[in-house]
Amino acid sequence: MKNKEAFYLEQVEEALARALPEPKAADLQGTVIRAMRYSLLLGGKRVRPMLTLAFCELCGGSVEQAIPFACAVEMVHTYSLIHDDMPCMDNDDLRRGKPTNHKVFGEAMALLAGDGLLTKAFEVALSGELKAEIAASGTRLLASLAGDQGMVGGQCIDLEADGKSVDLTTLQEMHSKKTVALIAAACSLGCIAAGGTEQQLEAARRYAQGIGMAFQIRDDVLDVLGSPEKLGKNVGVDEKLQKRNYVSLLGVTEAQRLVEEYTGKALTALKDFSGNTEFLRAFAESLAVRER
Amino acid sequence: MKNKEAFYLEQVEEALARALPEPKAADLQGTVIRAMRYSLLLGGKRVRPMLTLAFCELCGGSVEQAIPFACAVEMVHTYSLIHDDMPCMDNDDLRRGKPTNHKVFGEAMALLAGDGLLTKAFEVALSGELKAEIAASGTRLLASLAGDQGMVGGQCIDLEADGKSVDLTTLQEMHSKKTVALIAAACSLGCIAAGGTEQQLEAARRYAQGIGMAFQIRDDVLDVLGSPEKLGKNVGVDEKLQKRNYVSLLGVTEAQRLVEEYTGKALTALKDFSGNTEFLRAFAESLAVRER
User: Fold this and answer.
1) Contact at 8 Å (CB) between B29 and A154?
2) Which of B106, B56, B117, B130 is nearest to A159 (CA)?
3) Spans of all domains in chain A
């Protein structure tokens, strides 16, 4: 799995840098391009584009076929981080240990850099050698899962839940839009790029749902395990804890049980594929026990 | 022309409202959808989508064929206004006589509403009954003209020119990206929707270039004519006037002459079409003498 991961990662990094070249000396808008590149090429786990490549290969396609969609999904993810970090949203100064986009380029330029990356995502998604039907249907799916019925909708739910207690249904709806939707886009787009069947697409969505929810709930578990004194004080009874994560709603044991249940669902979904699922299986399993 | 304009306007307003329906009661992300609708359905001249419809008809297509592209272009325009009005950009409180999006919904929600509209634009562009080749190539063109090489690039140039004197070349580059690019997208997408020829596309781009520049320079002329005491004080000699508009660089007479020159270029471009160009001719002429 490690070799495969390193290979995918290398392909993704190269393709992203190629998709958004450095500005030419004569470009008067060089700053916004540099701001876009700053966040896009900052590294990161590249979870989403790797999933696109893996599902494309699993459905019999090539890495090259999947590259435009893979880059597009990562650009959508990156724009959402830039805008999320802005002062009017989460007001974060650091991202992956580096100053956030608006800290380096200013708020106005960060806003434009996010807008530019979101726009570029759709240009790149439509830029490959894929058949027009495939390019168009994949790109439309990406837009629908990234927009008000998907990721942007989830951010709205998150924003309005800020400082409030929410029930489990709301929490699940929030994560299924905010996080799972783009992971589902990543997996589905791999299948679409390869010309996969409807059954494969449906299985890819179930896998995405499984690892997406497991990823999110594991996040909440790590939040608590990361600070044991907080654990003792907050879990179960402390009313000051915002009831908007799985641990505060269910307790740490039940939350981790859910992580494993969702991971199991992802692994089950892989059984619908006849190809080599080793990478995707190991990937799902590693998310369930990750420590950071 | 007035009848045609009213007809186009009605088609556009109906299609926009249909493309972004009111949230259902169960939608937890209703607020962002309401914020998107607030700005999208606020009215306005609908210059861009009307151009898309008119060029589609001129190239032998139907209004219905052009509607997805027309809505997409207007959504891109609307998102750019929402983000432009935000405190970190122009910090405007009013738009078309109504409170700006962030004044009504707050900054974070306005940011999301803009992101949602930009995303929706690409979903809608790919949603019609057009052949996949046409949908994909039109949508890719929209993305390239709206992004860092087009509108977003122009906004970056504008931002960096703020408070500085710029030369005529920079001014033209700024407007050709910030304003003309999306108008060119609007005109081109009409031709593409109709399956127009390469020659028609090229003529549509020349028309767009002509009316786009004329529109922008007329804006600068009106700025000055609108306040005569400012005219006497500022034009030509006053060093305090930011040298970043056509009147301050060229004087009002030469600027208006340029408006007419660009309008003439737009009218010449129409000669390459064999269909009825009456609407587009009258449209170009009206822009050159508009008073607001």
Assistant:
1) yes
2) B106
3) 2-289
What tens digit of pLDDT does each residue of B141-168 get?
999 999 999 999 999 999 999 888 899 9
Collapse the DSSP code of B42 into the 3-class scheme (helix H, G, I; strand E, B; otherwise coil) and give the result.
Answer: coil
pTM of the model: 0.95
Decide if B86 and A118 are in contact by the 8 Å CB cutoff.
no
What are the tokens at B159? 């931002």
Place of tokens 């981790």: A256
Q: Is A112's CB within 8 Å of B140's CB?
A: no
Q: Report ipTM for this prediction.
A: 0.94
CA distance B23 to chain A (A): 10
Give the model's confidence band at A289: pLDDT under 50 very low, under 70 low, under 90 confident, else very high.
confident
**Distance (Å, rounded) from C-alpha B148 to C-alpha A112?**
9
Which of A89, A119, A157 has the CB atom closest to B108's CB atom?
Answer: A89
Chain A residue numbers touching B83 (CB-CB < 8 A): 111-112, 115
A139 touching chain B per CB within 8 A: yes
Q: Is 3.30.1300.10 the CATH number for A2-289?
A: no
- With CB atoms and an 8 Å threshold, state whether A139 touches B139: yes
| Tens-digit pLDDT profile for residues B180-204 | 999 999 999 999 999 999 999 999 9
Give B24-28's long-range contacts (Cβ < 8 A, gap of 24+): B27/A153, B28/A153, B28/A156, B28/A157, B28/A160, B28/A170, B28/A173, B28/A174
Q: Name chain A contacts of B32, Cβ cutoff 8 Å.
A: 148, 152-153, 155-156
